[in-house]
Design goal:
Its cofactor is Zn(2+). This protein is α/β, with parallel strands linked by helices. It is built from 11 helices and 18 strands.
């Protein structure tokens, strides 16, 4: 099969022919149809997040089940599926207490070692050299993933567009519903409206937020945010965003401020626009070692809560998202601005790094 391999940091992806992997007990082999292009992959490619290389990145997929390992009963060969980037083991302490989004096994084995949970990768070069897996290694024609991270997709949902459900929409859902707890009538601000930020906008609107303020430096992204449900937009390169938010909210600030870039500057901005007793939800992944310089006195005196949000709970939240999409409550298609073949994956990540991708791009990995 063909796979886009990250050979070393600071270099473009390389398209290689490698063997099709095989699923083991409790695992599923997916013939991938599409894979989303995420900024988190870019952090690995640039060496901003440590990860063993060479490896295959890509962590939001849709496709058709090709084969299942022993003991898998939740899906069958031929099923249309979507995969979540967090692949819960189901048995660690965090999974046991209902916190699959911070599954200890996932972080220890996959994010630190690039393997599945027996300590081995399923991907290898033709020479036998192991290739690490970032989640399921979705930038390939086939992927192996634990069955806990694969979910049936109804026929009415587009197989291509549904690829971004497993990270972009999944991450936004966890931030809005599980951590931000956005409620009817509240005010929301989203700082940085890339792929995840756009989905935070639409999920906040669906959750009943009275005002949804999108903040970015790109007018095209702000225009898209309007279409996704933003009631107000602010170009922070042209306007004092804090003053603008205060004007919109009558001087109070917002109930929930979401930071979706992974920057100390934008995270501080989120703390400055939260109202008394408000929530700041940090969603964007920054380079390792990034620290926050914020006015601690304001945070304490105004009882501002700063919360981190990483993904969502796969087995609870992906089925909920699928139901919302099937009911027509959410829109995936508008968020996607580029659909490219595997051969163009390297250039697409370079475009993402230059800030040229509006919303989300996806790589068409299958037939």
């Amino acid at each position: 099969m063909k796979a886009a391999v990250c050979v070393e940091t600071g270099s473009p992806l390389v398209i290689e022919d490698i063997p099709i992997p095989e699923p083991r007990e409790g695992e599923v082999l997916v013939h991938n149809h599409a894979c989303g292009v995420c900024h988190t992959d870019l952090h690995v490619m640039k060496g901003e997040v440590g990860f063993p290389l060479p490896g295959v990145l890509g962590h939001e997929i849709s496709g058709i089940v090709a084969e299942v390992g022993r003991g898998v009963t939740t899906v069958r060969p031929g099923d249309r599926v979507v995969g979540s980037f967090i692949m819960p083991c189901g048995y660690c302490e965090n999974c046991a207490r209902g916190m699959e989004d911070i599954c200890s096994t996932f972080f220890e084995y996959n994010r630190l070692r690039g393997t599945l949970y027996d300590g081995e990768s399923r991907l290898r070069r033709a020479s036998g050299e192991p290739l690490s897996m970032y989640s399921m290694g979705g930038l390939a024609e086939y992927s192996v993933t634990p069955a806990t991270a694969v979910f049936p997709l109804p026929e009415e949902l587009d197989l291509t567009d549904s690829a971004i459900l497993g990270c972009s929409m999944f991450t936004a859902y966890g931030a809005v519903r599980n951590v931000g707890d956005v409620r009817t009538g509240e005010s929301v601000a989203v700082v940085a409206v890339g792929g995840v930020g756009q989905n935070i906008v639409q999920l906040s609107a669906v959750s009943g937020a009275e005002s949804v303020i999108a903040i970015d430096v790109d007018d095209d992204k702000l225009a898209l945010a309007r279409r996704m449900g933003a009631t107000h937009t602010i170009n922070s390169a042209q306007t004092d965003a804090t003053a603008a938010v205060m004007e919109i909210t009558g001087g109070r600030g917002v109930d929930a401020a979401f930071e979706a870039l992974g920057s100390a500057v934008t995270t501080r901005q989120a703390t400055e626009i939260a109202r008394e007793g408000g929530r700041v939800v940090v969603v964007g992944i920054p380079p390792a070692g990034t620290s926050l310089d914020a006015d601690l006195a304001r945070i304490v005196r105004r009882k501002i809560q700063i919360k981190g949000s990483y993904g969502a709970r796969a087995r609870q939240d992906v089925p909920a998202l699928v139901r919302l999409l099937a009911a027509g409550k959410l829109d995936l298609g508008q968020v996607i601005s580029r659909r490219v073949p595997m051969a163009e994956a390297p250039q697409t990540y370079e475009a993402l790094d230059r800030g040229e991708v509006l919303g989300r791009a996806i790589v068409l990995t299958g037939d």
